[in-house]
Design goal:
globular, alpha+beta, Endonuclease, Chain A, about 20% strand, single chain
Length: about 260
């Protein structure tokens, strides 16, 4: 199984996950854009795993150093994710609702131009967790969906009221990425009571080869252990405060979500 960043432990029930103290930074409203989108995700070098209930179009500042940035232009966040994927970053999006109409049209345009074809997406109607794991070293957990109003890309009077934490806790990264991986590879599908209403159960993707036009057709390549993160991909220690949590295991080498077999 290809690996770039991850977890070799098995999922453990809540009773077996001991409470621990972690360092974390609280993100409120616009902090989601400044700290998470513009710094952490933009600076990813190995992997970006996103879990979201809703998917909508979202505009972000153009990359630093680009002509678009010099002109004050904004670009599609999905286009930015496609740029990361083409540079070798393992970008995976696990979502519940289908993309909104405007985003579906945008994704079709990007796919036609080859601008987002390397971004891997899988859908599970039961996904309601909001999570972003970056390089196997930084984790966001909170209320924000992958939308402009959720991740603070809209103005102060139009964005949602959101709150979450960003942490570099190794134990929480293990537990969160383990959960993401189980859902991604369909490990929860067999006992799901909504399977009959699911348009494409994820466990079927592990038994059949995806069509050539699908982003799932090309399994993620094996990746080396992440290099030391840049200053923008890790919250400042001074800004982190203890928070109680219940992680699943100690830190291990992290991997990409399981690819079709």
């Amino acid at each position: 199984m290809p690996r770039s960043a991850a977890i070799s432990s098995t999922w453990r029930p809540e009773a077996e996950r001991p409470a621990r103290t972690i360092r974390a930074k609280l993100l409120v409203d616009g902090d989601h854009y400044d700290d998470l989108v513009a710094r952490a995700v933009a600076g990813a070098r190995v992997s970006v795993w996103i879990a979201t209930a809703n998917l909508k179009t979202m505009l972000v500042e153009a990359p630093i150093g680009s002509r678009a940035r010099a002109r004050g232009r904004y670009v599609s966040f999905f286009e930015s994710l496609g740029d990361l994927a083409r540079r070798g970053v393992d970008v995976c999006i696990l979502h519940a609702s289908p993309p909104s109409g405007p985003l579906a049209r945008e994704m079709a345009r990007l796919a036609a131009s080859g601008a987002a074809g390397a971004v891997k997406m899988r859908r599970c109607p039961r996904v309601h967790l909001k999570m972003i794991a970056i390089d196997g070293r930084l984790l966001y957990l909170g209320s924000a969906n992958l939308t402009g109003a959720g991740l603070g890309a809209k103005g102060a009077g139009r964005r949602n009221f959101e709150m979450g934490i960003m942490t570099d806790s190794e134990a929480m990264l293990d537990a969160a990425q383990e959960r993401f991986d189980r859902i991604w590879r369909g490990a929860e599908c067999a006992r799901c009571q909504l399977r009959s209403s699911c348009d494409a159960p994820l466990d079927t993707l592990t038994r059949t080869r995806a069509p050539a036009s699908s982003p799932l057709a090309k399994p993620p390549r094996a990746r080396p252990k992440p290099a030391e993160p840049t200053r923008t991909t890790k919250p400042a220690r001074a800004a982190l405060v203890p928070v109680a949590t219940s992680p699943g295991s100690s830190r291990r080498t992290r991997r990409s979500p399981s690819s079709p077999r």
